[in-house]
Amino acid sequence: MTAKDSMASADLDVLLKQASDILARKQGQDKPVIAVWGMMNAGKSYLLNMLTHHYNAEYFPTKDTRETAQLKQFEGESYIFLDTPGLDAHDADDQVAMDGAAKADVVLFVHQPKGELEKIELDFLKQLKESFGVYAEKNIVLVISKADAESLEKIEQIEQKVLEQCHLHLGFAPESFLISGTRFHKGIQQHKDGLVKASHLQELKQHIETLGIDVRAVREERIRHVQNTLLLEISAAEEALNDEKLQLEDNLYWNFARFNDAMLSLDLSMTLKKVEYMNERILGE
Amino acid sequence: MALPWLIGAAVVALGAAAVSAFSDDSDSGSGGNGDEERRRRERAEQERKARAHKEKLESMKEAFVQEGMQRANDLQQSLEGQIKVILLGNKPFKAILDNDEEYHNPVSPTYVEVYDLQFLPQGTQDYLVKLESLYDVELEPEEELMKVPVRLKEIDHKLAQLKALREKL
Ligand SMILES: Nc1nc2c(ncn2[C@@H]2O[C@H](COP(=O)(O)OP(=O)(O)OP(=O)(O)O)[C@@H](O)[C@H]2O)c(=O)[nH]1
Ligand SMILES: [Mg+2]
């Protein structure tokens, strides 16, 4: 099996799984699925704990090192919240994160303000945008996390830069929120409204409400996209296989060319000798 | 197929020869002792001719076999890396020149059938069967060659899967 071929079929398996995931959800749950997505350690799980009111005991485990490895969901009253493993471009866990994004109706893309978007974040975002089709602009929401960790000025600079990157690479600038999960947490626990307000978490919640997510329409759009991608992948895989087949047949032809020539030559020579022999025999009678 | 045409030509030539021989005979109709002497000489001459003819046929047969033997190694080499050719006995070339049939009936089942070599181009299959009918040989496809049909089958299987998947979409 060639590397090219095994890659093509691996991709196909992935697409197939995504397709069946989405198709399965078509009839199933009708609560919108809100997924967090982004690089590892960005604060995704922490944010979800806040959005799902897990203030005292974590539902989504958080840690300073790589933590989430599997998809984990929480069913709220109006939404299903989905935690995904951090992207890191070196890891098979990225596939789990991709599967998570495939299940989502809204993606909160979480970016911590250490700098602008990295290339791999942009690459993942591009894929995400593709798969959301016309809903990308609305249903991909940018969250700049850990807003308490830097000066407001610096954070706003980074936000500006990130939105420019999105505009350039995705063709649109998503709605963005500067969020501090820890401020919100403290504010709730210590009943400090100022902190809650400064966390901007309520604004994010409100924004999700105003999206008025049409689950069926979003999913249909995403299914359409998966189908198209799948069809393209199928064609590419078929082409690769047919090429390989032709190559094998061609090789067979050439590997036996010398034998075929030798047999042809023997055949001709034998025929000729037989004719000569018969002529000779008839002449002698 | 040049054969029938050439034989046709040979038969015409033969007819001409017979006619001339006959007229020679009728010409020599007179005389006593001299005649007998001549007839004896002619008979001797004819016997000599017949012997020479027979020898010529024998040597043609021999040349035929020799050529077959000479070509054996080349054929063996031409299949190197694809099919191992084991020549059997010290006279593996078994075709006979004065056998009117094109070649001997192929051994059944042929090696093409035994090893399922139907994945080879038809012409090559035919030549392998022919090789077997001309020579006492054992054929043994190399492992590398036998990977090809396995892979071809895999490819067909995958193509069928892809087709099914396409139809499901
Ligand atoms: N200062 C600050 N730290 C935060 C905030 N949110 C999360 N953190 C910390 O950032 C670290 C990573 O948070 P997680 O929520 O586990 O990050 P994650 O994106 O889920 O990480 P993975 O699951 O490994 O991809 C933890 O130590 C959190 O306490 C925030 O708003 N401010
Ligand atoms: Mg996490």
CATH topology term of the largest domain in chain A: Rossmann fold
Structural class of chain B: mainly alpha
Strand residues, percent of chain B: 5-15%
Shape of chain A: elongated
Task: Report the total helices of chain B.
Answer: 5
Q: What string gives the helices and strands of chain A in order?
A: HEHEEHEHHEHEHHHHH
What sequence of helices (H) and strands (E) makes up the elements of chain B? HHEHHEH
Helix content of chain B: 55-70%
CATH architecture grouping of the largest domain in chain A:
3-Layer(aba) Sandwich
The DSSP helix count of chain A reads 11
Strand order of the largest sheet of chain B: 1-2
* Spatial strand order of the main sheet of chain A: 2-3-1-4-5-6
**Radius of gyration computed on alpha carbons of chain A:** 30 Å
Bound molecules: guanosine-5'-triphosphate, magnesium ion
Strand elements of chain B, count: 2
Report the β-strand fraction of chain A as a percent range.
5-15%
Radius of gyration of chain B: 28 Å
Q: How many angstroms does the end-to-end distance of chain A come to?
A: 65 Å
Give average pLDDT of chain B, whole number.
Answer: 82
Query: What is the helix fraction of residues of chain A, given as a range?
Result: 55-70%
Q: Any idea what the shape of chain B is?
A: rod-shaped
Q: What's the arrangement of secondary structure elements?
A:
The complex is a heterodimer of chains A (285) and B (169).
Chain A: H1 3-27, E1 33-38, H2 44-51, E2 72-75, E3 80-83, H3 93-103, E4 106-111, H4 119-132, H5 136-139, E5 140-144, H6 152-170, E6 176-178, H7 181-189, H8 193-199, H9 201-210, H10 215-255, H11 257-284
Parallel strand pairs in A: 1-3, 1-4, 4-5, 5-6
Antiparallel strand pairs in A: 2-3
Helix pairs in contact in A: 1-3, 1-10, 4-6, 7-8
Chain B: H1 3-27, H2 33-78, E1 83-87, H3 111-114, H4 122-134, E2 137-141, H5 143-168
Antiparallel strand pairs in B: 1-2
The complex binds guanosine-5'-triphosphate and magnesium ion.
Guanosine-5'-triphosphate binds next to helix 2 and helix 7 of chain A.
